[in-house]
Amino acid sequence: MASSEWLPRAALRELCVRAGEAILAVRAGGDWAAREKADASPVTAADQAAHDVLMAGLAALTPEVPVLSEEAVVPWTTRRHWTRYWLVDPLDGTREFIDGFDDFTVNLALVEAGRTRYGLVHAPVTGTTWEGGSALGAWRWQGDRAEAITVASRWPPRVVASRAHLDERTRAWLAGFPEASLLRYGSSVKFCRIAEGEADLYPRFAPTSEWDTAAAQAVLEGAGGAVLVADTLLPLTYNGGESLRNPAFVACAEAQGRWRKGTS
């Protein structure tokens, strides 16, 4: 990936850590109250605090690259001309944050020509940062120590699913794998568990938006996995139209794995 040469990766990792610190500061202050956005999703002061940190940091680090954030949506009339942009979810797992769980994340992705090329997923509570891209590889950072990560292959599979969104279509899909074990997580941690070899599959049929998936997809692809549209089994892509909703998808350790037989 030629574009990786200009990425200030260390500074971007530090930016995500600072956004996570802003979230934890709100949490420590007890201001967990949420309001409902137009799409019925919750937003808190922590979402806005992390958003402000990321927007200021990206403007300083890469002023030439536009930014699309969950908390500052850009209309399609503008986005349609973008070939490279940052896609940001300042607080992925807002419901987990509100409910007192720890598996919420800061997500930052670089999208080029409709594909996610580089991503950072930071978990503020544990201090873990996952970094990756399809042409870069993938790493799990703890402080200043990095460990290369890669997907694993096992059968029966370990399937990760959302703690809050295990809908009927997902249950029906899982019924095709009766021998599978089920793990429940919130936020982009689900993708990262596959990337580091702890899980194998993540089917998602409940609604998601593009900022929910792009960063973790880059990490997973860097680790050797894939995120495929459920109906076509083609890679999940970005900025293809006015809607920012994703289609149903399956994140997997192996794009051509044995699991595909259960979807036919």
Our Rg estimate from Cα atoms comes to 17 Å
pLDDT < 50 runs, ≥5 residues: none
What is the 3D shape?
A: globular
Tell me what portion of residues adopts beta-strand conformation. Answer: 25-35%
Here the CATH topology of the largest domain equals Fructose-1,6-Bisphosphatase, Chain A, domain 1
Give helix and strand order, one letter per element, not per position. Answer: HEEHEHEHEEEEEEHEHEHEE
Largest sheet: 7 strands, mixed
Give the strand tally: 14
Helix content: 25-40%
Per CATH, the class of the largest domain reads Alpha Beta
Mean pLDDT: 93
Instruction: Please state the structural category.
Output: alpha+beta
The name of the CATH superfamily of the largest domain reads Fructose-1,6-Bisphosphatase, subunit A, domain 1
Oligomer kind: single chain
